[in-house]
Amino acid sequence: MSYDGVGLGSAMRSAALLTAGALAVHLLAGCGSGDDGNKPLAGQDIAPAARHEIADGGTLRWAVDAMPQTLNTFQVDADAGTARIAQAVLPAMFRMDERGRPQLDENYLESARVVETEPKQVVVYRLNQQAVWSDGRTIDAEDFAAQWRALSGKDSAYWSARNAGYDRIQKVERGASSREVRVTFARPYADWRSLFSPLYPKDVMGAADSFNDGARTQLKVTAGPFTVRKVDDKNKDVVLARNPRWWGRPAKLSEIVLHEVPRDKRVAALADGSVDVADIDPADVPRITAAGARAGSPFPGASDSRTAATALRVWALEHGTESEDTDQELRALKKENEALAARLRQQQALGAFQVRKSLEPAYTQLALNGEGGPLADERVRHAVAHALNRKEIAELVLKPLGLPASPVGSHLALAGQSAYADSSDALGGQDTAQALSLLADAGWVPGPAGEKAGEKKDAKKEEKKSGAAGAQSSSDGGDDSDDGTYIVGVHGPETDDGDSDDDRTSAEDRRDGDRDDRNGTERPAPGDRRYTDGRLGPGGAPGAYAPKGTAAPAGAASGPLAKDGKPLTLRFVVPAGPGTDTLGKVAERITAMLKRIGITTEINKVSDESYFRDHIASGQYDLALYSWPSSAFPATDARPIYAKPVPAADGSLNVQQNYTRVGTDQIDQLFDQAVATLDEDEQRGLLRRADARIWAAAGSIPLYQRPQLTAVRKDLANVGAFGFRTPVYEDMGFLKKGVKR
Prior knowledge:
By secondary structure, this protein is α+β, with helices and mostly antiparallel strands. The chain is built from 22 helices and 25 strands.
């Protein structure tokens, strides 16, 4: 799990899932075709080039959020850097294609298939005849067996993050030859292709000490196009070098250096040459894009500042008016000029880069904590869901980046993957009237403190007595930030398709308004607006104010809701720090949508370090935004996220990774059936039924697929925003001189 723009780290549900989803290390092969019309929303953007166009040699410097704490992806503190290293240096039996669907990796396997289903499921792996570890030893059944024993969960000496799948294996043995591995399962396991990816050598998996400690800082034996040459904690580098024993296509690069660079330092690191590739935040995109477009062009400005400073100095000397104030102003101008010159140099350096963008195999959701408080009531959770315009939220994040802005329709897969189907109809879309009805049914009514019926009558009498005084008070001014005024076209009624008049306000209109400000045109105050367009529709002019006291139309709350003297207020926890601007904007938009149905939110911005540990995992929130990676194996990987919480022996609640604390027995049963069937069509059907029930439970609302934004040197090929596809490290490199793009 992660939240946008913040390092994955301990927030991931497990290291194994990180490799399966966020960086797509292990993948399915032989999957059914599923829905052939199901396409990814965005493809790769890696500047592809043929190998003959790429120069031999060179060092690629790649920014990572932090130095990996371990090189063992099966440990709890493995992170994105751990997974990236594993992709480049270790075997993976299956890898992801561009549609997020797993394919057999022929560098390691000739074939892998189920050969028996009765009385036990048996899978036979036939290994590539050339596949060897970097020490020259053949990859064989002993490596598979050692990994099974380490991850089976039977030996508590191994500190593994999870054992899903490995705990279903009965035995691992040599097959008909030394190049065959025969795996027998005690229980049927549909996601058998998720196993042994990555595969570690028996040197790592064969003893608890080497698993727990040895593989944290070094991998002496590997079997990929690269090896781990050095882990340099002082310089924050992990150096990967060509593997001389690699039997596949030789790596074009001599080295790949993973260098720690915080998100807020990425642009500076690109400009000063510290890194060649870096994932960046949306706020950095315009600057790099503009620099790339103007590469080779002169940047105006620095000379203008120098001229101004010089002119001021000359004038002061000629007129004998040089003073301490003049010197201070000159020093300030000099400092400003130096800063501007440095920025311009940095901008010129950024001209060598371009932003490559796609959609990450992960989605951001709104989590609703159902353990206690108002959201323990399913009706309130449904009301929150019906208040959201998910299309608008997706456009807020993705449209400015030029990426497809479609709301995510599944908790268990993303568009392009075989398990994907839009099951959001099980909950329904934006429907303000339905939201208000649900809240009323749950006892939440308009009023300053949710008055009883008798209290409302008394309040109405008071209102009649003080009506004139109230009107006078209104005209005299005061705090009218939320005075109940109904604004035509802004608080308009819902249309048949669930969109409000506000929703129909075009982006072009808003941009036109922005241009008015930029051109210096003074905008009239709301009360002074004049509308002369005779073509206004029935809804009136957007922004036209009705007299105070005019009732809002059906489909909008008349004010904050309350029950039994308590207002309907939800704690909305949001991370603060570099890279979290997008989440802040999304939280503000959701807050505005909830306000329309009378729900008040209190946004609580907390530090990155405490966001997951002290709030999400501990349940100290009502609403929160965070992301889950998409997995090729949702029957296995998604189950702990949506499992029904159960009481633990010590009286606490065992939630696994279900941080919303919302689950049902039926959802659990569907996952159990899906993971045990070997019929792929049947599994897809079961997963889609499970997803529909997850939608109906309304513990989490998928919003949008996360943007993947990567700044890359223009002369680098086959690297960038990879989307679903697993990176092909041996094909990355710098273009030969003279090759035109």
